[in-house]
What we know:
GMP Synthetase, Chain A, domain 3, 2 domains, five-stranded mixed β-sheet, 10 helices, 25% strand
Amino acid sequence: MKYLLDMEDLRDIMIGKDFKWEGNLEDSNESKVRIYFKLIDSKLENDTYNIAVEIDKITTKNKGYYTHINSFCNSGKDAINDREYLQMIAGISSEIKKMLEQFGDTKIIVKSLNCSDIPKNITESKKDRKIIRNVVRDIVKVFKENDEGVYYLPEGISEDMTYFNYNIDVEYTVEFEMVEDFDANEIYVDGDYYPDEETLVINVRYNPDNKLSHITELIGELNEIVAHEFTHMRQVTKGFLDTVGGEPENSFDYYSQPHELEAQSKGFKRKSKITKQPMSDVIDKWFEKYKFKHRLSDEEAEKIKDKIMTQY
Length: 312
């Protein structure tokens, strides 16, 4: 009789752990999918392990494949007769069988999709949002609990020494500077990304007399600036942004650069979503509030806005 792993041992080793399978659904790299899943239950019946699986997330370049997954989620059924979907299940089954082959025979049952984690189109921006939220959350925590000064994250508030942007495989730290300004009527946020140091620098200038009354505005602006700088982080990593050489001295030329327009668009879209304000209004308010920073005329700012709205 073949050796079978004790069921309790199997649960301890496998249940609730995260696994992934990736493969091509067709004869093209464009059909590659990556499936993240976990084992949620196991039963031993007639010397066979019946393994129940839940799919957490599916990523792919081809958005068309999401149609199959969404139809499954929306139907509430336990199975779907779809070629691509069945290929995914076969891939998952193969991965699990490979992991457990030394312990005995297995039968794989995909019980459900975690549909709350599978939107209509799982895109890079979906994953970006989670990373942005984590950084904004930490900065707001430090802002609420501390006075003027420079703080280094995440090491200042956790045992971790770096954050990890798993979209582009970059580890980075955050240098957060709080500056008091008793003459300020609003809260002002600025940022920069230094790829050589893998550091995201965030500056907040505020009036300590009404510090906490601007928390809502701070959260919106942090989401905008972090999304903006994360875009530059991706551009540098992917080779779309050359950090060697200077930026244009003319403000209009600077803000008209394609990489800068894309970053502005990403940031403003993020703030629009967070604040539930039309993106057009978000852009207008930013250019009005930060005139001292961008040094653009009203006509130039309107032209930049038009580029953002029409090109991205």
